[in-house]
């Protein structure tokens, strides 16, 4: 549905800013694609390049089969009808009611009053604002304003919805309800959604794919479940760590000295990551039963990523050299990820 190839964007000025340095990504029809990055990474520039609010310096932007970078103004205006957008600060017209805000893009199109009403009535229902149709933006909460923004973006029946930090100005509860609404319109209208955010929980809640942007470059991308369970870059690890604990708590680290290399008579400290079916396996019980080892659990956490169970256990395994080797062989052959964090002397 969307294909960006080697997109660059340089803001020319006294000091040129290379905001995008060659970004390529593909968004499949009907998916929710999240782009995450720290402040200044290039997220806003990137999402605005998808509908040509920013014209890329170089590269290709194809939306629904159409190359947008070379279109005339008229053709671009036409192509943009397929691309709705919502904003962090809603961008509503304060002098217009909810109904009239949603009607605005349709009025610009020259649609009749009757046509407009036929479009808006179900949209108001979809976003849950039927009873607020004659309210003004100043009479609405942040969440309700964003619902108006969503309805307005959907008025032209777009194929793609771009969300520019759509929940960043909202409290956690309202964020949750707006994310649920986005998921709802994605499913009901088969809408392709691209969102940018600096909050990993937004990605975890609703996205299918994620790209991590840093310093104008995509440094990692993949299925959300894969990036969460096996982040590669330091930045992705940090983002994942902000919503799912995967490390030993500081208190435990401080209580013993961890060696990165094997030492004589040591316990192995290992992190086990369980995904899907493997989360239900009684692995620890099997270890104790089958091998002559003791296992203590130092840390455990179980979470769900879009319905998939995802668990982390950090364990200390003690036993003689042979038992430890057999245990590690056993774990490495199971359907889970095993990482040795370090070794601790049994005297510790
Ligand atoms: N119109 C502009 N003129 C010059 N530089 C710009 C302009 N817009 C953005 N930049 C610069 O481009 C870089 C990327 O900015 P961008 O807003 O895309 O990042 P971001 O990841 O969205 O950041 P934030 O989360 O803080 O909004 C930054 O260094 C920013 O200062």
Automatic annotation (TrEMBL):
<keyword id="KW-0067">ATP-binding</keyword>
<dbReference type="InterPro" id="IPR003439">
    <property type="entry name" value="ABC_transporter-like_ATP-bd"/>
</dbReference>
<dbReference type="InterPro" id="IPR045865">
    <property type="entry name" value="ACT-like_dom_sf"/>
</dbReference>
<dbReference type="Pfam" id="PF00005">
    <property type="entry name" value="ABC_tran"/>
</dbReference>
<dbReference type="GO" id="GO:0005524">
    <property type="term" value="F:ATP binding"/>
</dbReference>
<dbReference type="InterPro" id="IPR050086">
    <property type="entry name" value="MetN_ABC_transporter-like"/>
</dbReference>
<dbReference type="InterPro" id="IPR041701">
    <property type="entry name" value="MetN_ABC"/>
</dbReference>
<feature type="domain" description="ABC transporter">
    <location>
        <begin position="2"/>
        <end position="240"/>
    </location>
</feature>
<keyword id="KW-0378">Hydrolase</keyword>
<keyword id="KW-1003">Cell membrane</keyword>
<keyword id="KW-0813">Transport</keyword>
<dbReference type="InterPro" id="IPR018449">
    <property type="entry name" value="NIL_domain"/>
</dbReference>
<keyword id="KW-0547">Nucleotide-binding</keyword>
<dbReference type="InterPro" id="IPR027417">
    <property type="entry name" value="P-loop_NTPase"/>
</dbReference>
<dbReference type="GO" id="GO:0016787">
    <property type="term" value="F:hydrolase activity"/>
</dbReference>
<keyword id="KW-1278">Translocase</keyword>
<protein>
    <submittedName>
        <fullName>Methionine import ATP-binding protein MetN</fullName>
        <ecNumber>3.6.3.-</ecNumber>
    </submittedName>
</protein>
<keyword id="KW-0029">Amino-acid transport</keyword>
<dbReference type="InterPro" id="IPR003593">
    <property type="entry name" value="AAA+_ATPase"/>
</dbReference>
<dbReference type="InterPro" id="IPR017871">
    <property type="entry name" value="ABC_transporter-like_CS"/>
</dbReference>
<dbReference type="Pfam" id="PF09383">
    <property type="entry name" value="NIL"/>
</dbReference>
<keyword id="KW-0472">Membrane</keyword>
């Amino acid at each position: 549905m969307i294909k960006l190839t080697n997109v660059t964007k340089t803001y020319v000025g006294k000091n040129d800013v290379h905001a995008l340095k060659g970004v390529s990504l593909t968004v499949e029809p009907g998916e929710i694609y999240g782009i995450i990055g720290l402040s200044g990474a290039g997220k806003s520039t990137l999402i605005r390049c998808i509908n040509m609010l920013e014209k890329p310096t170089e590269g290709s932007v194809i939306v629904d089969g159409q190359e947008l970078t070379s279109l005339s103004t008229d053709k671009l205006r036409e192509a943009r009808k397929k691309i709705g957008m919502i904003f962090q600060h809603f961008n509503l017209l304060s002098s217009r009611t909810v109904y009239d805000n949603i009607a605005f893009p349709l009025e610009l199109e020259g649609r009749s009053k009757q046509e407009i009403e036929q479009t808006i009535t179900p949209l108001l229902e979809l976003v849950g604002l039927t009873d607020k149709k004659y309210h003004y933006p100043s009479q609405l909460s942040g969440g309700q304003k964003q619902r108006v923004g969503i309805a307005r973006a959907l008025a032209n029946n777009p194929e793609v919805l771009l969300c520019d930090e759509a929940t960043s100005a909202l409290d956690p509860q309202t964020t949750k309800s707006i994310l649920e609404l986005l998921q709802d319109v994605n499913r009901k209208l088969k809408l392709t959604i691209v969102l940018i955010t600096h909050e990993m929980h937004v990605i975890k809640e609703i996205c299918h794919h994620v790209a991590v942007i840093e310093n104008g470059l995509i440094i990692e991308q993949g299925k959300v479940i894969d990036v969460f369970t096996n982040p590669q870059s330091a930045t992705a690890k940090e983002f994942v760590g902000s919503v799912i604990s995967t490390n030993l708590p500081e208190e435990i680290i401080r209580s013993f000295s961890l060696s990165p290399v094997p030492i004589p008579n040591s316990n192995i400290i290992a992190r086990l990551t369980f995904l899907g079916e493997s989360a239900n396996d009684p692995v620890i019980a099997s270890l104790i039963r089958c091998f002559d080892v003791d296992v203590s659990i130092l840390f455990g956490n179980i979470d769900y990523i879009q319905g998939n169970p995802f668990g982390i256990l950090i364990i200390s395994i003690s036993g003689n050299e042979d038992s430890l080797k057999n245990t590690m062989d056993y774990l490495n052959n199971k359907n889970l990820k095993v990482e040795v964090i370090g070794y601790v002397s049994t005297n510790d």
